[in-house]
Design goal:
It is a single chain. The chain has about 150 residues and is mainly alpha-helical. It contains eight helices and five strands; from the N terminus they run βααβααβααβαβα. A three-stranded parallel sheet has the order 1-4-5, sandwiched between helices.
């Protein structure tokens, strides 16, 4: 399974930086057949990022398209683990939930947030900073497809 940070979703939806956009799009193409699993808080973070950038009606359309393709872990299942991650790494609250999701599900974590990447690695998670580790990520995804 794979945990993909909201930063990658936003980079794949909006073309603010061509390189980040193309890399994010490729990751989503490569992971189509894999199970993407995210913490419930992702839903709040995603919609807040979308409505800041586009009209609410379009934001909800994109939100619903994404949500129907992923698996969500309820906050209740992650609360204590996220607290532990935050205590051990000093990570931001939202990042702690993504890291906890990866830890709970034994998933890799893909992010375009260097701080989250560092904290995930501190927590013992196999994490990838997509901008710098694109080739490693694609290799790992291909390995996961074999199982």
């Amino acid at each position: 399974m794979i945990v993909i940070d909201t930063s990658v979703f936003i980079d794949g939806i909006f073309r603010y930086d061509d390189q980040r956009y193309e890399i994010a799009k490729e990751i989503f193409r490569l992971t189509q057949s894999l199970n993407i699993i995210l913490p419930e808080i992702f839903k709040v973070e995603l919609i807040s990022q979308l409505v800041r950038r586009i009209e609410k009606k379009e934001a909800l359309k994109i939100y619903n398209e994404i949500i129907e393709k992923i698996e969500i872990i309820p906050i209740e299942k992650l609360r204590e683990l996220a607290f532990s991650v935050a205590c051990d790494t000093g990570s931001r609250a939202i990042d702690s939930y993504f890291i906890a999701t990866a830890k709970l599900t034994n998933s890799i974590l893909i992010t375009n947030d260097k701080i989250m990447d560092n904290n995930a690695k501190k927590a013992g998670i196999e994490a990838y900073y997509l901008i710098e580790e694109f080739k490693k990520v694609t290799k790992k995804i291909e390995e996961l497809k074999q199982f």
